[in-house]
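Ticket closed. Logging final result for Penicillin-binding protein.
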Amino acid sequence: MAFNQWHDRRPMPGSQGQTRPGTVNDGFDLRLSPDDRPTGIAIGAPRRTARPSPDRPQERREPAFSAAPARTEVPGGNLGEGLPEDDLFHEDDVMARHAAGHRFRKGGGRGRGGSGSGGARRGGGRRRRSFLGWVVRSCVVLAIWCGIAVAGVVAYHFAQLPPIDQLTVPKRPPNVAIAASDGTLIANRGDMGGREVKLSELPPYLPKAFIAIEDRRFYDHFGVDPLGITRAMLRNVTSRGVTQGGSTLTQQLAKNLFLTQDRTISRKIQEAILALWLEQKFTKNEILELYLNRVYFGAGSYGVEAAALRYFGKSAREVSLSEAAMLAGLVQAPSRLAPNRNPDGAEKRAQLVLSAMADEGFITEVAAKSALMEPATAIKPRGAGSANYAADYVMDVLEDFIGPVQQDVVVETTIDVGMQRAAERALVEALDKQGGKYGVGQGALVSLATDGGIRALVGGRNYGQSQFNRATVAMRQPGSSFKPFVYLAALENGLTPDTVREDGPVNLNGWRPENASRKYAGPVTLTTALARSINTVTAQLIAEMGPKAVVRTAQRLGITSPLQPNLSLSLGTSEVRPIELVAAYAAFANGGTGVIPYLIREVKTPDGKVLFQRTPTDLGRVIEPQHVADMNMMLRQTLLTGTGRRAELAGWEAAGKTGTSQEYRDAWFLGYTGSLVTGVWLGNDDSKPTKKASGANLPAEIWKTYMTAALKGQSPVPLPGGPFNRLPPADDEALVADGGYAGAPPPAAVGSPPAQAAAPQRQRGLLEMLFGG
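Final structure:
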């Protein structure tokens, strides 16, 4: 059935089998005349039927109408209410004709502008153009929103920073350069560890090495390098790991100056903001100079000057091309690539730096190959050297002399470089060879001039493993090395070196001290008792004088640690620090003047302004000359005939005393010549008993080894009151043994004996001691 016939005969609503009256055309034309086009026909308006005029040809026009014709609501009623049925179906007529025309064109009918297929192509083009437009519009909208989001994030993190107009580059923390007595640098202290250097003072290839490996576009970007970030991302993706960073030198400087080392997105955003600010405030060369003086190189070294001194023992002004490449390579991973710990890793990284420098044209291929043939070699780590114990001691007391350190300073110390090396070598080699045999894990050595100036200070076996300064901080029992204060108090109370006391079993208020040899010699002089370190005689002396007299004597000579005034003090049960014990012995060596140990001689600024200069300071006379001579004679016999014979020095008049605490927990030797006083302590940090290490064996050997090296080339200086004759050796060698208390330890607080047993204030002879009277 033809379309127009079917359309004109549709059933009317509400009627069966009836067709809608209308004219049936012989041919059909779906195009509408201008009058029939649905351009917003109001429902209920008079229906106009366009009929072709027989007098003129009809124009074929493409129907153009809205896919959803406008409808007008009828006020006051429902749609179509009160309208003829023909008027109700007029709109349906128009839509049906349009649908039929659309199907006709899809089937090959002609449309506007050409054949049906051409119209389809033009319709597809319009659809494609419409889709592309949608994509473009969406991308623009998305970009706008992303920009807004980024701006918001940046604004938020910007608000977390201090006000930019108040932001300044913080001053570099002050550096403390610590020098030996001859001006040799022994250590740097402070957060930076190196003096600030100008860019113009450095060899040109040094800053170029950092640019080549860290930021090749340094002079081209504005603080943040999008190209560098993209390149780093691509390389990290292709290598499946983080092999390259995108931070510029300016960003790294911003992080070092103002931010923490946290690896967070927030910190990276703030880093970028600050990098932009730095680029606006400083020139490129100023930024590069700041960077080189602030970047961290590991091992506590901040700045290229500190790193050059730390790893190569020279100024950054003097480094070679290969050394410059190694320094630049450290920045990526300073701890992992430190040349003194990982020389292979540091060298491989330096090779990459040299290659990058050649690629950028900073050096020639010939120069790069030459540097590869002569790689940099790191010096022995200064950080592990024993001189750092002295440097730490300087930092502990420096503020007492100049107040808070607010500028770079140079501290001249009393350390003798040769003596310091000899002390470290003597202690370390002895512990390496015999420490296991004696069960000794640690040691300390302090050496003073007779005025108290510290010439050598070794606070432990290995500074790199333990920075605890046993020479100045550790509190240890001195054992028999405390006995000279007891004998000095006895001399000051009227006794003499020839006074005789009985070496035998004693009972002092329930305390029964014994000798290390477990044997007794009978009547002996005080000289022999001290030389042989006889415990029973020493205990009798403190009982005679009273413990408080001994405490006063020791404190007068410079002992500052608390001393318990009890009888067991005579055997060295109160703990002291090695440095104060050595300083107290100095009064014997210098003729009776008490000294205060000191390490700092002068403090000045790098340009020579003196901030502090030591003036001679001492405790005045603390021992009378005659008592000095007597004590030196008695202590001289310790090295000649007593427990310290292993410490005897060829060509020098030396004196000293061994010391061993209870259960062999501490082993000491304190000795001196007319020019140098030295003390050696050995033991374990946990106070674990040693394998019978006593002052007579390993400490005495270390003391002799050190003193022989330290005094080499010097003219012998006699002891005050000397020279002293050699006394006859002991008849029974078994009696000559140094050791701590043998037997049960003394009661916790053994005081003085009853008043009638107190020490008389006059000398007692042998007959008086044996028979009374």
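The mean pLDDT is 80. No further action required.
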